[in-house]
## 1
Amino acid sequence: MVNFFEHQQQAKRNTGLLVVLFFLAFTLIIGFVAVVTAAVFGGIAVQQNGDYQFSWQPIAWVVLIVGGGILTAMLVKWLSLKPGGHVVAESLGGVRIEPNSTDPLERRILNVVEEMAIAANMPVPAVYLLPNEANINAFAAGYESKDAVIGLTRGAVETFSREQLQAVVAHEFSHILNGDMRLNIRLIAALAGILLIAHVGRMFLHSARFSTSRRRGNGNALPLIGLALFIIGYIGVFFGNIIKAAVSRQREYLADAAAVQFTRNPEALSGALQQIGAREYGSKIGHANADETAHLFFGQALSSWFTLMATHPPLDKRIKRIQPNWNGRYPKPKKAMVQSVAEQQASQPQPTALNRLAMLALPALLLERVRSPQQAPQFIRDMLVGQLLGEEQPQLETLNAAQQLALVELAIPALRVAKDSDRLGLLRDLEQLEHSNDLFHWCLYQLLARQLIESKRFKVKLDNAEAFAATVVALKRAEAQQPLNLAQLEQALNTCKSWSPKAKQPLVQKWVETVTSDQHISDTERKLVATLCACIEEPLPDEMLTNSASSNFA
């Protein structure tokens, strides 16, 4: 039996070490540039006895200028990517799939992404298709969950079976939940900063060609500085890419382990990787921008002759970690989209613990409404605010809490692309829930607001210990039907949402301990834990996914 939890911990430890090495390399690069530049301008002098004399003022100025330039380049790159994962997806030729698409190929992708989002207890992200990429690959991009996107190549969608597609999407969801997207954006920005040194060196060399003839007798130092910066910059980029690739390899091991832990189906993920190995061009991406984003993908997006530059572990190692008894032989390539009618029917989602969406048995008409940018705002308003105002909604009155939470999460993609007037009107109506003592519906309002309103609206935070305690107290008071301090709870959620996945785990465990202290989890406690987890973007704990927990909180 493979210990996937141990693999996850090992990958996290290795990632931490590599990030430290990255910043160490960053510091050394600034130091080298400072020393070379200072030496040229007299900051370092050799005395008669052979000792070196340092003039710290010019060295300090060089460090300040170089460091400031690198940080500025990093900031510019980071700001260009911060608007969301759609920037990355569109730079790779991705086309956004409309949430209410009826195209069979696109609907197949959307159905799987929706299933995995509901299983992970998180809002459905935007989905992009890379129609010009015939090889097999996928990626997740964005800075936080509200701007996250899942991207799939045409080759992946046409090749994978439903279970394999679920496993690959689960792999990408783990990148979102583990904070890998933010780390990836920062690595891209850091390399852009280091690359600036090489670009400046190239500019100095280029300009030196026009000034050398005029200053030949004046000891022109510009070519020397330019050459030094050019060499140091590209050496820095080279080693930076090595460290970035090593970080990426560890995060891929972590995502593989998390996907298997999530789906409980190692054969599906192993089969997806084997389909990559079965093809001549495997997971290669042909777009010109693939070089900058290669570490975001599910499989090795670029050919790498140098093992240390590979952004992904070797396929056989990944497969062996997942399926130790694999015989080492890749299967014949196949396309899932040419399955027979019987095979397609057999691959339809079944009501299992993983596929909570199927278990919820949501009416097709309601699914159609929450997927429509034209209908979703009014539907969510009727479902949430209408209940508060006592409006008669016969079709909605029968919905249990789990169904309501799922419909809110499913509606997010449509609400994001709805007309501004419709979306803003919905948010104004939802403000009536802001002071509701019904914690469940208040949490649904928080979930929607955090996905649709600018993040600065939720900047006010508490001390970590105070935030931890405030959520536990709110859970206890809600079950006892006592008044809640909603302003404090909102600030506590702002604080907890910003924690790392590792820091969130004790909090969620405390919530579970709180609701199980009497050896029984009531329906009210179950739905409160589910909505609180959704607000801080944490998957439901296993205790909430037993018996009726995964179907209806009542």
## 2
Amino acid sequence: MIDTNTVKIVGVRPPEIDVTLQGYAGINKEISVVPRRAKVPSLGLFYVGSVLEQELNQLGYQTEIDFQDLATSEPDKLSPYSREFSKLSEVKYGSGKIHKMLRGKSLSSLSEVVKDADICFMSSLFTAGASAVAQTIQAVKKCNPNTLVLLGGRDAQYRPEWYLKQGADVVFLGQAEGLAGKVIDALLRSVPVSFPGIATKGNLGSLGSGQNKISRNACLENEVLPNFEPRILKLYSESCDGILPQGISGPVMWYFTSVGCIRFCDFCPTAGTRYISLSSQRANRMFEHYKKAGIKTLLSAEDNFLARLKDPHRKEGEAEQEIIEIMKLMRSHGFAHEFSNGLEVGILADENGNLRERLVAELFAREGTAGTYRMYWPIETLVNRNRFKKLADKEAHYRILDAVLQTGIPEIVFNTILFTDYGPEEVESVRRELGEFCDWMTKHQRQTKWSLPIFHELPLPGSQSYKKLLPHSFDINLHPELWAVPINPVNGNHYNYDELYTIKRNLMEEFDPECLASWDEAGRYSSTDHTK
């Protein structure tokens, strides 16, 4: 397909979606109902680009690679949906109407970028952004029908057929490492692609089996240090949990030191996958690389950082010491840090219920601006005990929370979930428990600012609950934008979809009205000195 041995590659981050709700239940203004993440970094853009370069170079190809982040380059620009998606840009939601737009640089800007490109790769991590990804694929193909589009990401892994119909040539069903180079080589030589872990229009593929089985998660066995693009990196200045606090600066970037989860929560696509973690030495090499690139603030992309403590193959105390070393190394490099994806905080008490005091101190230690300034803390264990027996009991959880607050952590974003099978009794129980929690925090919060957003249960592709809830939901192929936790796409056992949404809003209005107002206006949380 190409005349020379040089492969021209373009990595594209699609625009974000901008979804608002108008005329709902007496709310006179237009309100935001999906997260606005335009200035939140994309690690995958540079990580996958580095994988492609390494593997193609090993196969004897030269590479020219360019990166385009349409979301971050013009984060305040809104554009209408294109082509057939424009017909789906409005949908009735209860008494109101959902309006959908693209947020970011215009898709027409891709014409110059992809006109000579052999390969274009992108990721579709969140279901809510699927329409933006699809329109970006179509824009690439319109500009250059010969450009081969490769797609990865969690949503694409579980819904490959939909993306292939939108114009993608290849969808990775799991890790790209070890596969990407071989796939591109086959495509460029017009050889059929029939590797495990790959879906194409002619073959939806599978993960394979035995030793050849492909993991759904990123591969940690091979070290990949992303080649960050400075002109894009400097634009990354926010996290999923809100704007950076005063004194904390960008560029910000995601990192992870583990993948997988041994738990089997029915709402999570990662449940029951092999858990792998990096040593402190590997983590340090990553930190050195990030620092050299000019990154100032790290965002944790893992929610099982502490799962090392449950590894039966480790010697006593080994896992705890490794975690402490990683946190110390992070601070020694001067990084501000955020646990953006949560922690299994119940593990901060050992099997006998004793607090791991040294570990708590190191996780949340700060030296000037270096160290942990904010964390995301799901509190399902406080309000839905029957569903979350995996962690510490309620009394132990409050002791852990008190210990964390004593470290002086500046901000915590708490969160609970409104499940679809809740009836009046369960809703009242949640309300009562949230009241107890807010009363406790008011007495114990010290200087920590905090917020309490409430999310909806979503039928996430790949999770055990997906098939159970999907028949009671909006059509995921037509309206994937509603797969965002602030809005509810599912009819419940006792309430329909918009009744559950109203219940959620009423609870937030009672327990954290400032957080609700911030979300309605800006599509992100706000932390305050108190919420009640």
